[in-house]
Amino acid sequence: MGRIGDRLAHEGHEVHIHHEKDFALLVLGDPPMAIDAGLIVGPLFDRRHPGLVDRLAPEDQAKIRASQGQHLVEGFWGGYVAFLRTDDGIDLLRAPLGDLACLYVHQAPRTWVASNISLLKRTGLAPFATDWAMIAQHLAWPYLRGSWTCLERVMALPSGHRLQSSMTGVRMAPLWSPWAFTDPAERLPRDEHVEKITRAVTNSVATLTNHWGRPVLLLSGGLDSSILAAALARHYADLLTLYTRDPIGDERAYAAQVADHVGRPLIEARREVNEIHPLRSAAGGLPWPARRLFEQETMRLVNIAAAAHGATALMTGGGGDNVFCALQSAAPVADRLLVEGPGRGMLDTAREISDLASAPMPTVLRSAVAKAMPWRRRSIARPDHAYLSDEAKARAGASPPAHPWLTPPSRPLPGVAGHIRLLALAQSFSEGRDPAAAIPTILPLLAQPVVEACLAVPSWLWFEKGRNRALARRAFAPHLPRAIVERRSKGTPDSFQGEIFEHHHATLRDMLLGGALAEQGLIDLPRLTRLFSGSVAMAPPDVGSLLRLVDVEAWLRSAPGRHE
Fold first, then answer.
1. Bridge partner list, 538
2. Which of 92, 323, 332, 334 has the CB geometry, 3.0–4.6 Å to 460, for a possible disulfide?
């Protein structure tokens, strides 16, 4: 296993090509770790001893082989992809919640595997045509990722899955599922959950920081990024807050409180709309339009800060709402009703949801009872049809693309199903990373140990004193200002997206009204024409939905599947 068949240069990095029977694995950068059973690409961390694993003990290697990789999933975590020899042939394993992409093209007798489209193109397999049915699905479910991509013939191995390849094709099977960590019968006292979450976040941040080097933390002063600032207090990290001209997008006062509390200086930088280039896609090396237009300015300012202060990675609180179960529904009340029955506990949770949502108690209770009914207990992502044509809606279909996490067991608890739906959507953060980026993006709150600790929490324990993410607040209350721990408001990129729409109005109009989406009949041209004429009022969410179309149009123009 692991015979190097070739080496070639790619964008300043060395590419190693490993051939073994049915697979050819392209690896960018350092060679993989060789083990008895095969190869491991990307960072691997041990749950028992926080830190990078650069050599596996013989007993661990034996267990990995005997369990066909299950020991790797249960005893370790990280951003790895493993290439393992089994009794039946060769398996490819992707880490649960791993942030190293794993794309493949099956062309008998071989399956080519790489982390990005640019590498796959070096094999001679390209060009890859645009898959317009998947484009329609992406437009309707922009944050849902699975085994599909928006390029024909290119597939993605979902996190926590095994891929087996043979002459007749490939077969995928899950090795890890979030549903396995949600048994309501294994309830712990609240304080034990808090301790487990504290330990998981602190250890994950320390492990990732030690591996990737000095990070620059994108700090808004919201709860999630502030928790990371607290966890980084023992490490050397730079704190960067971004703000806009509009006060709605200026959270410097909150970020300054956090920076002062943890004893680190705060770098402030203003987002500049004239630095945005709508025709440019940051997702050109990805098989789907997984990056947002406003992120261009985020990364420009991050790169400036990193160069000035010697940072080697970007750390963000992305996915925190999802991991810490920030549900906006009565589903946790329904969970408590189903687990404990009607009583004071259920009423207490209903009161918390009522305070959080500013909704009358009778409304919350009626909704909870409805969600508790067996025929209502299902997990499904709702489509976003904003500005889509009837043709696009038809091509996207009535149901979301198949996703293993959205197929729950029989009669799932509605709050648990909602939490897992949030986690499925959070994958868009990690699947949007560019594996060849000069400054890698690190998402500690989506680390496997953190997610597993949070999945074990009954949904109703996440709500307390009219606030969500209650256990995360408790966990880091001793390390953060009280105003941050109790904060209910949350910053958004809405004001900056409004600036982008106004400043680049003509370019955006020409892109959408005369672009590939219009040519394919996937967007509502009459409505968009009225919108760009100024005859239709736009709320911030409408601007965000429109700019998602721009993200897709820019990605299509970048032609990620064609030869360079």
1. none
2. 332
Q: List where CATH 3.40.50.620 sits in the chain.
A: 181-323+424-485
Residue 8 tokens read as: 């070639």
Alpha helices in 248-343 (DSSP H): 252-262, 295-309, 320-323, 331-340
Q: What is the CATH number of domain 181-323+424-485?
A: 3.40.50.620
- Burial class of 109 by CB neighbour count within 10 A (0 to 12, 13 to 18, 19+): exposed
**CA-to-CA separations, 399 to 142, 173, 478, in angstroms, rounded:** 13, 22, 44
Q: How many CB atoms are closer than 10 A to CB 280?
A: 12
User: Where in the chain is CATH 3.60.20.10?
Assistant: 4-176
d(CA 333, CA 348): 9
Q: Which phi and psi (to 5°) does residue 493 adopt?
A: -85, 10
Alpha-carbon distances of 176 from 39, 97, 350, 375, 410, rounded to whole Å: 20, 9, 33, 27, 18
Q: What is the pTM of this model?
A: 0.93
Q: What is the largest CA-CA distance in the chain?
A: 69
Instruction: Name the helix (H) or strand (E) containing 82.
Output: strand 81-86
Q: What is the pLDDT along the chain (564 residues), one digit of tens a residue?
A: 334 344 433 443 444 555 555 666 666 556 788 888 888 988 999 998 878 898 999 999 999 988 989 999 999 999 999 988 877 777 889 999 998 888 998 887 778 888 888 888 877 888 899 999 999 999 999 989 889 999 999 999 999 999 987 666 778 999 999 999 998 777 789 999 999 999 999 999 999 999 999 999 999 999 999 999 999 999 989 999 999 998 888 999 999 999 999 999 999 999 999 999 999 998 888 899 989 999 999 999 999 999 999 999 999 999 999 999 999 899 999 999 999 999 999 999 999 999 999 999 999 999 999 999 886 656 567 888 999 999 999 999 888 888 889 888 778 899 999 999 999 999 888 888 877 778 999 999 999 999 999 999 999 999 999 999 999 999 999 999 999 999 987 777 888 999 999 999 999 999 999 999 999 999 999 999 999 988 666 777 789 999 999 999 999 998 776 654
CB 330 within 8 A of CB 364: yes
Query: Peptide bond preceding 127: is omega within 30 degrees of 0, i.e. cis?
Result: yes
Looking at domain 4-176, its CATH superfamily turns out to be Aminohydrolase, N-terminal nucleophile (Ntn) domain (3.60.20.10)
Query: Reduced to 3 states, what is the DSSP secondary structure of residue 319?
Result: coil
DSSP element (H, E) containing 223:
helix 223-231
